[in-house]
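> run fold Ig-like domain-containing protein
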Amino acid sequence: GLVSEGEFLDITEIKRQQAEDYECITHNGVAPPDQQKVRVTVNYPPMITDMKNMPANLGKTAILRCDAMAVPPATFEWYREDHRPVENDNTLRIKNEKTRSLLLFTNVTEKHFGNYTCFALNRLGSSNASMLLFRPGALQGRGAGLHARMRASLCVWISLAAVLLVKV
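> ok
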């Protein structure tokens, strides 16, 4: 959709969606037109695009997945609640693919349950996301309490806002 007259095409404030092939066509009215394609690559820091909490049963397998888009491609690191890097062992393995990192649990034990953070990094920056590996049903009680606290906080905030408006 970009058209330019002259020998340069300036794309200011380029977005990653504009990374594609561009075609330059020259003609001088004497010789037949000439054309050349140029691939424009837009570098950008990692953006995590998909992750979610995962229920896991004891003794079974489970997978935590972290997807990230980045140019140049991201490298991945996993951390556990105590912020130590997660390392491969006989029940836990990290598998990195082009745009995804998987944390594979082959035999879930009590020690595996908890919060994990995925970091996606390249030379332009980083992004991170946290997710829970939890026993099925373990989060139901927490969610109800969280919603009740949110409703109570919202009521206090609305009441405070109403009092302030009345005073003004």
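The two ends are 53 Å apart (CA to CA).
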